[in-house]
Amino acid sequence: MQYRQTEVICVDPVEPEPAVIERAAERLRAGQLVVFPTETVYGLGADALRPAAVEQIFVAKGRPLSDPLIVHIAHEDKLESLVTEVSAQARQLARAFWPGPLTLILPAGSCVPKLVTAGLSTVAIRMPRHPVALALIRAAGFPIAAPSANRFMHVSPTTAQHALVDLNGRVPLILDGGPCAVGVESTILDLCAEAPTILRPGGVSLEQLRTILPEVQPPPERQHLQEEEALIEEAQKSPGQLPVHYAPTVPAFLFEGSTEAMLRAMLAEVKSREEQGELVGVLVADEDVAAFQGCGACVYALGNTAEQVAVRLFAGLRVLEEAGVQLILCRSFDKQGLGLAIRDRLLKAAGGKIIRV
Ligand code: TXA
Ligand code: MG
After folding, report:
1. Cα separation, 46 vs 36, whole angstroms
2. What integer pLDDT is reported at residue 235 of this predicted model?
3. I need a surface site. Which of 26, 35, 95, 167 has the fewest CB within 10 A?
4. What is the CATH number of domain 7-231?
């Protein structure tokens, strides 16, 4: 479906105006798509229980039907109607982390359309914490299926403007609730595996999950492009986990090593590329910026704490892309806490290309 214009309406992110929410809910009830803010990234929502509405998500994103969607709910009570069984583990985790950036993989109930689960026997469910998302789900009166509101393979949107760039004319309405507070997507935890296993690290850290369920397994380490074949096979289970899923449209490299060695190697790469007439973008911490002064690179500072880096990461990739750089060089960050999700997204942006120094 093409729209002459995508309407963007501002909404108060703390106390969403009921009239604005109602307008968006009406669109959803009419089977249309609405882009809305969540605390992680912007979502592209449709009535999760209506296949014809869900189908439009795949068309608007250009996403293959083999990639299942997350179902967003506003009350824990809604779980029972969407799954065949709510385990004690699921209850404990929901109580601890919902509303919030945690998605649980549970056995799908019969009311969940096959389009949502991509034919799997499981369904991904999360209760977001953003007041606009919660208000919209409540006003709509049904759960909302929503992937990130970007075109397939592009970087997830953390502002309404990012979503507009990707989906202008492809959706009727975008609710602009300002920038997302977390900045990386939700953690996806598979509760249907033998042991609870993280499929995608995200806004709730492994350490946090283990305070509730000590047996939670980290996501499998995937660092080399040679693993790509295995990944593609694995993608049958979690198709969005392809290594290039979050890739910006320009090639990127992830540097790894001591801070000093990384910065030295990045600077050397910038200089050699510059000599060949290439414009290079670099993603670094605030405290690294001085090291690049005087060179011609586009420098994007991500902050210093993991929380700051997570919030700015996707915006940074988009800014560099729009600046017309031919190559993006990123430094690595600590892997603790949110750092695991940051590393995962950087690796995906780099298509698995790591330069160890
Ligand atoms: O933070 C988020 O999770 C955002 C906001 C909008 O909620 N949503 C999001 O959706 O990131 P999406 O579609 O971009 O990523 C969802 C991931 C996909 O990689 C998909 O493969 C995986 O969840 N997924 C969905 N259902 C699944 C299932 N039944 N089993 C395994 N993985 C599943
Ligand atoms: Mg996505």
Report:
1. 11
2. 43
3. 95
4. 3.90.870.10
